[in-house]
Design a protein that fits this description.
The chain has 456 residues and is α/β, with parallel strands linked by helices. The chain is 33% helix and 21% strand. The protein folds into three domains: 90 residues, Rossmann fold (3-Layer(aba) Sandwich); 209 residues, UDP-N-acetylmuramoyl-L-alanine:D-glutamate ligase, CATH 3.40.1190.10; 133 residues, Mur ligase, C-terminal domain (Protein-Tyrosine Phosphatase, Chain A). Strands 7-8-6-9-10-11-12-13-14 form a nine-stranded mixed sheet, with helices on both faces. Strands 15-16-20-17-18-19 form a six-stranded mixed sheet, with helices on both faces. Its EC number is 6.3.2.9.
Length: 456
């Protein structure tokens, strides 16, 4: 198996970025006998972790990315997923033939666990969380990590061969993998996202596809039949393909058939009816995530009864169409995780009642024209903030939305939306943008939204 010998012993490793995954992988590599240097551009006063790393014997360089850190004796560069590849340290490493990976790759090389890798443009966290609950209910030993919760490096080395490590993975993380090999890999959907980082849709797509690069016969690839991108990807794969679909009957996997969630399983002569789709409490598009989670869990050997019980009781995770409160007949929902137009459109389509939308954030050059039709169908009003406020308000104007307001921040947006809404309406934070122009994360943005709602 992968672990055993100290494969990094004596290696010179540069860890770029002092976020949680950087800290975890630095400590892991140090424990493996590597000579580790951690580098972050933030000044020392903003890196309280530096002192403890230095006490442990790890070199820390802060306040910039000095080029002297990359030289021919460096054996490996482990980068924070969000750091772009065009910075000089990384381009110099590539020129010298130094492998550039993300923490996911290192954790994989040092674990015995069977890995489930889950990626997609939207729905990763909901699906990953639900798979974790299903496997736990089915008494399959498992842990959840990756782009959700703990870094892989915090869990992977201690996990055993009989355990499942369920990983939520971003395109940023997958781009920096080479040998990473999940027993089960799932792509939920592929729509344009993070193009400012990837530079092109092709690079974004190829980064997602790296999830399957090392799969072989006997591995499982779970894909969305309702996505043309996923159907195209399936033609290139070596693993056994399991599908999920809300629209079609599939020969292996989970689908909706005559109002029921139904599974076609390789070891069953007949299809298995799990429960009515109306009994799945997840709202709107997240029912698709429920089908994906069921497919992944069943492929891992989870009992049908455990899948059924979790499908019937799981109501979602924080910041994903999360019901915050109902105040004076108006329902408030936090969908701060909707960081692209496709996710925001799906959220809007989840409601039949009039919606006052709160949206806006980091400008990645998107024109939001794909939202015009759903604005026309669903919006009663829009409150926009951040770098993209003007563009979103223009799209709403084109859609004939008369109630439009630009505000300074989330707190003001909630007050303004409250004034626009009437009993029976929905106020929805679904920004369609990343948060980084104003907030450190979508979690911070969503939490501030919830605080503002609770102050009404």
């Amino acid at each position: 198996m992968r672990p055993g010998q100290k494969r990094f012993a004596g290696k010179n490793v540069l860890v770029l970025g002092l976020a949680r995954s950087g800290l975890a992988v630095a400590r892991l590599l140090h424990s493996e006998g590597a000579f580790v240097t951690v580098n972050d551009r933030k000044p020392r006063q903003e890196c309280p972790e530096a002192e403890s790393l230095e006490r442990e014997g790890i070199q820390v360089v802060l306040g910039g990315h000095p080029e002297r850190l990359i030289h021919p004796e460096v054996d490996l560069l482990v980068k924070n997923p969000g750091i772009p590849y065009h910075i000089p340290l990384i381009t110099r490493a590539q020129d010298l033939g130094i492998p550039v990976v993300t923490e996911v790759e290192v954790a994989y090389l040092l674990t015995e666990a069977n890995i489930i890798g889950i990626t997609g443009s939207n729905g990763k966290t909901t699906t990953t969380s639900l798979v974790g609950r299903m496997l736990s209910k089915g008494q399959l030993p498992s842990r959840v990590a990756g782009n959700i919760g703990m870094a892989l490096s915090e869990l992977a080395p201690a996990m055993r061969e009989e355990e499942w490590l369920i990983c939520e993975l971003s395109s940023f993380q997958l781009k920096g993998t080479h040998k990473f090999h999940p027993r089960i890999g799932a792509i939920l959907n592929v729509v344009p996202a993070h193009l400012d980082y990837h530079g092109s849709m092709e690079d974004y797509r190829e980064s997602k596809k790296k999830l399957f690069s090392n799969q072989q016969i006997g591995d499982v690839a779970v894909l969305n039949w309702d996505s043309a991108e996923c159907r195209a990807i399936a033609q290139e794969l070596k693993g056994e393909i399991w599908w999920f679909s809300r629209q079609e009957i599939v020969n292996r996997g989970v689908m909706v058939d005559e109002g029921w969630v139904v599974a076609h399983l390789p070891n069953h002569k007949e299809s298995v009816r799990i429960l009515p789709i109306s009994s799945v409490p997840l709202p709107g598009v997240h029912k698709e995530n429920a089908l994906a989670a069921a497919t992944i869990a069943l492929a891992a050997g989870c009992p049908v009864e455990a899948v059924r019980e979790e499908l019937a009781t799981f109501t979602g995770v924080e910041h994903r169409l999360e019901h915050v409160a109902t105040i004076d007949g108006v329902r408030y929902y936090n969908d701060s995780k909707a960081t692209n137009p496709k996710a925001a459109a799906a959220a809007l389509e989840s409601f039949e009642d009039p919606v006052v939308l709160i949206a806006g954030g980091l400008d990645r050059g998107i024109d939001f024209r794909e939202l015009t039709s759903v604005f026309q169908k669903r919006l009663k009003g829009i409150v926009a903030f951040g770098q993209t406020a003007d563009t979103l308000l223009n799209r709403a104007k084109e859609a004939g939305v008369s109630l439009r307001k630009q505000v300074a921040d989330i707190a003001e947006a909630v007050d303004c939306a409250c004034q626009m809404a009437e009993p029976g309406d929905v106020v929805l934070l679904s920004p369609a943008c990343a948060s980084w122009d104003m907030y450190t994360s979508f979690e911070e943005r969503g939490s501030m939204f919830k605080q503002a709602v609770h102050r009404l």
